[in-house]
Fold this protein.
Amino acid sequence: TGEVMAKEPPGPDGARPSVPRILPALCAGIMALDGPRSEGLFRLSGEAMKVKELRAQLDRGNYDLSGVKSVHILTGTLKMWLREMAEPLIPVELYDACLDAAADLDATRAVLARLPPANYAVVSFLMLFLRGLAADEIVAVTKMTPDNLSMIFAPSLLRCPYESPQVIFENAERERLFTLAVFRALGEGS
């Protein structure tokens, strides 16, 4: 995430943004395309070719989303961007600590405190955005509860460093629980 931030051009005030521009652009686009009223938000896939095209457009620094007509293209692009980062948002050296912290808010906060500042900023921004989509009246439409969102976004936060398919499978539930704990810990203003 640090290397992504280093590539971000400074804003009008000369300061670099606290999160890569792609993140607030996609989140604003999701809201503009009525994401909170879209059943299956983040679960349903956008057309793969359009997701790749949008990702390439954003990578070139063109953040004009006016041509995008499907919220699922935006959500697919967001998930792709997060999953294709060179390094996961939660550094691999913290992976085991994350699994140990799963479902424990205090332990989760301790792990989050160890994140590099750029990673923390992105995780915090993402989780606060998702928390806004977890209001009961929105969940009634999208069907995306905090539990469902944590299942979708766990692979975006964590990457299992182990190669064994059995270990990967066994760790998936603890990864989801940790992601849910992050969602709750950051949603409480920590």
Remarks:
- The chain has ten helices and no strands.
- Residues 165-187 form the longest helix (23 residues).
